[in-house]
């Protein structure tokens, strides 16, 4: 196969997939897809609905542990540093603090969704 054939096949496949991607979702429009909001709230109701504070607590805890994973992701490459023991020590301290915080929230009942 030469380069021209590969480029033609790639272009044809791209056009076909683009057409299918635009055509396929329009096949079955229903009331949920046609509503202006897809967040689960009634768009015609009151805008002052109370939120549960537990929802925000769970969301913040999720973000905290998600960021913790992002910070600890480069940890295996710490063995290449001049002092890998210090890096592992600080990572252990961070994990211990997060674990203690999680245990505290758990014992206080902060992770219970329903009371």
From TrEMBL:
<feature type="transmembrane region" description="Helical">
    <location>
        <begin position="87"/>
        <end position="106"/>
    </location>
</feature>
<keyword id="KW-0249">Electron transport</keyword>
<dbReference type="InterPro" id="IPR000440">
    <property type="entry name" value="NADH_UbQ/plastoQ_OxRdtase_su3"/>
</dbReference>
<keyword id="KW-0830">Ubiquinone</keyword>
<comment type="similarity">
    <text>Belongs to the complex I subunit 3 family.</text>
</comment>
<keyword id="KW-0812">Transmembrane</keyword>
<keyword id="KW-0679">Respiratory chain</keyword>
<feature type="transmembrane region" description="Helical">
    <location>
        <begin position="6"/>
        <end position="26"/>
    </location>
</feature>
<keyword id="KW-1278">Translocase</keyword>
<dbReference type="GO" id="GO:0008137">
    <property type="term" value="F:NADH dehydrogenase (ubiquinone) activity"/>
</dbReference>
<dbReference type="GO" id="GO:0031966">
    <property type="term" value="C:mitochondrial membrane"/>
</dbReference>
<keyword id="KW-0813">Transport</keyword>
<dbReference type="InterPro" id="IPR038430">
    <property type="entry name" value="NDAH_ubi_oxred_su3_sf"/>
</dbReference>
<keyword id="KW-0496">Mitochondrion</keyword>
<keyword id="KW-0520">NAD</keyword>
<keyword id="KW-0472">Membrane</keyword>
<feature type="transmembrane region" description="Helical">
    <location>
        <begin position="55"/>
        <end position="75"/>
    </location>
</feature>
<keyword id="KW-1133">Transmembrane helix</keyword>
<protein>
    <recommendedName>
        <fullName>NADH-ubiquinone oxidoreductase chain 3</fullName>
        <ecNumber>7.1.1.2</ecNumber>
    </recommendedName>
</protein>
<comment type="function">
    <text>Core subunit of the mitochondrial membrane respiratory chain NADH dehydrogenase (Complex I) which catalyzes electron transfer from NADH through the respiratory chain, using ubiquinone as an electron acceptor. Essential for the catalytic activity of complex I.</text>
</comment>
<dbReference type="GO" id="GO:0030964">
    <property type="term" value="C:NADH dehydrogenase complex"/>
</dbReference>
<dbReference type="Pfam" id="PF00507">
    <property type="entry name" value="Oxidored_q4"/>
</dbReference>
């Amino acid at each position: 196969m030469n380069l021209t054939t590969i480029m033609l096949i790639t272009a044809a496949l791209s056009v076909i997939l683009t057409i299918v991607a635009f055509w396929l979702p329009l096949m079955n429009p229903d009331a949920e897809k046609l509503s202006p909001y897809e967040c689960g709230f009634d768009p015609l109701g009151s805008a002052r609905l109370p939120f549960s504070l537990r929802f925000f607590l769970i969301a913040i805890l999720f973000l905290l542990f998600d960021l913790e994973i992002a910070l600890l992701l480069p940890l295996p490459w710490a063995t290449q540093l001049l002092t890998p023991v210090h890096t592992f020590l600080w990572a252990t301290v961070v994990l211990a603090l997060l674990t203690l915080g999680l245990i505290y929230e758990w014992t206080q009942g902060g992770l219970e969704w329903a009371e």
